[in-house]
Each structure stands twice: as structure tokens, then as C-alpha cells.
Amino acid sequence: MDDDLDAARVAFxxxxxxxxxxxxxxxxxxxxxxxxxxxxxxGLQRLEAENEDADGVALRAVVLEGAGEKAFCAGxxxxxxxxESAGASSERGHYEFIRNFPAPVIAKIDGYCLxxxxxxxxxxxxxxxxxxxxLGFPEVNLGLLPGAGGVQYVTKLAGPAVAKELAMTGEYxxxxxxxxxxxxxxxxxxxxxxxxxxAFVTDLAGQAPLAVQAIKDSAHMAVQSGLEExxxxxxxxxxxxxxxxxxAEGAAAFDEDREPEFEGK
Length: 265
Ligand code: CO8
Prior knowledge:
Layout: E1 2-4, E2 8-13, E3 18-23, H1 34-48, E4 61-66, E5 71-73, H2 83-90, H3 93-100, E6 105-109, E7 112-114, H4 116-123, E8 126-130, E9 134-136, H5 150-158, H6 160-169, E10 173-174, H7 175-180, E11 186-188, H8 193-205, H9 209-224, H10 227-242, H11 245-255
Parallel strand pairs: 3-4, 4-6, 5-7, 6-8, 7-9, 8-11
Antiparallel strand pairs: 1-2, 2-3, 9-10
The site of octanoyl-coenzyme A has 22 residues, from helix 2 and strand 7.
InterPro entries: ClpP/crotonase-like_dom_sf, Enoyl-CoA_hyd/isom_CS, Enoyl-CoA_hydra/iso, Enoyl-CoA_hydra_C
GO biological process, one term: fatty acid beta-oxidation
Keywords: Lyase
């Protein structure tokens, strides 16, 4: 499946189970306008539809990337600045959709990742960046704070000092500094970036999909709940996974000293 939406492209590789949503406004450094926000959701919905006729789980992982050479996403579209669009850009919309999406979503960051673009990446399960990428929260320069939870989420990942430094100074940091602070998962050399991301994503897509989904749910719960509630939740998920064919397949593959073939059942 290869689809063009107005402001995004969608592709699905049925061999690997990997979907790709490409934010496609390169002339505006993939800045988030209403259309792009809607198309990120529409693209993910199209990919999720791949599961409908599948025997098991067809969609195993999604890469979210930016078109063009320069940016993952340069934040909210400041060209269309209005109180209304500023409000809409901070609404939960595509951010929560990504957070609640059943398959893991990987932000492939190659270039600028700013403001609402960084918040979009923070909504993803993984952030992989090329070495020359640049991250930051320029909102303070507009007299604003990151409106979609940027300070909250960076505080959880890197602590309040780093979150305040980024959001109060508006200064941009390198991908390496962001990785050192725990904001992104991995930094790769620019000329090996595509191959490294492919390897990471293909590996992830080969894992037991129901377990991966449950782990995403569990991590989401850990951010929002107390430990007792989180432990009870994990225990329920664990018992459910014990009943899956994937668990039986994983155990059989271990016994037989072979690679498991998970189907998401
Ligand atoms: N919105 C709209 N267009 C943009 C944006 C943006 N956020 N960023 C870049 N562009 C456009 C430029 O206007 C330019 O267009 P054109 O070629 O027609 O002049 C094109 O993309 C290329 O950009 P530059 O020529 O500026 O490229 P440079 O390499 O010189 O600079 C930068 C790259 C440093 C990333 C620079 O473009 C920049 O500073 N961009 C703005 C970053 C920014 O402030 N983003 C907003 C963050 S705030 C946020 O996300 C949430 C706030 C919500 C309130 C905003 C209201 C909607």
C-alpha cells in the first residue's frame, strides 16, 4: 500500500509489517498545520486497517519521518499563526493518537525537530536521530511554552533541569546531547542513518506483537499511575500473554533452538 494524503504519505511493507507515515510539507520544513495534523492521524488509521483482514497482527511497527533534506518537523506552522491555530496545535489530537496507537511508532529524526515537532517525536515510542539533527523548544521566543506537554515529558525523561533549560532558553541542542540526556534513544552517523533505522525497526517488527503492544500499554501506565496500580496492570497483561499462541511459539522456538515466528495471536 502506497497512499498520498494532502500533507502526508503512507506506505506499508507487507513483508516486514512496517508502515511509514511521511510528513510531507518539505517547503515549510514539515511544519504542523491543521491538514498535516489530520493526515498523521489518517495515515495511522490506514495502516491500522491492515490488521482488519489479517490472520493475527499485520502492522508491527510504524516509522514517522519528515520529507525533504532538512527537517523532521519545525513545529507549529507559524505562517498560519492565530490564537485558534495555536490552541489547536496544543490539543491532544495527533499526539494522543500516536501515544495510544497499538503498534510502536518510531520517530525518524533527520534534521530540525522543534517545538510541536519535538512534542510529536516525544509522543512516539522511540526517537532515532541522525548525528546532524537539532532539537529544541523555541516556543519561549513566541512568548509561549510547549503546549503539548513538552516540559512534562522531557522532565520525565531527562529531569526538570534539562526540561527548563530547553524550554526557558529556547536554545537548540544536538542529537548527541539529546541522547546523552535520555531524550532520544540512539544517534547514528548521517551516512549510516537509513540502514541503522531500518535494522532497528525490522528487529522491532519481528518481536511478538501482542507482547510489544502490552509493553507499550504498560509503559504508558507507568507514566500516568502509581506503582501499585501499575504492577496490578502488568500482572493482568502478563496473564493474558501467557494464553497467547505467540507465547507458545516463543517457548517452542527456545526449546527447539530456532528463531520464533510470531503472528500476533
Ligand atoms: N512554520 C511555517 N513555515 C516554516 C516553519 C514553521 N514552523 N519553519 C520553517 N518554515 C519555512 C520557512 O518560512 C521557509 O519558507 P520559505 O522558503 O517560503 O521562506 C522554509 O520553511 C525554510 O526555512 P528557512 O529558510 O528558515 O530555513 P533555515 O535553514 O534558514 O532555518 C530554522 C531553519 C532554524 C528551523 C528556521 O526555519 C526556524 O527558525 N523555523 C521556525 C521554528 C519555530 O519557531 N517553530 C515553531 C515552534 S513553536 C511550536 O511549535 C508551538 C507553538 C504554537 C504557536 C504557533 C502558532 C501556530
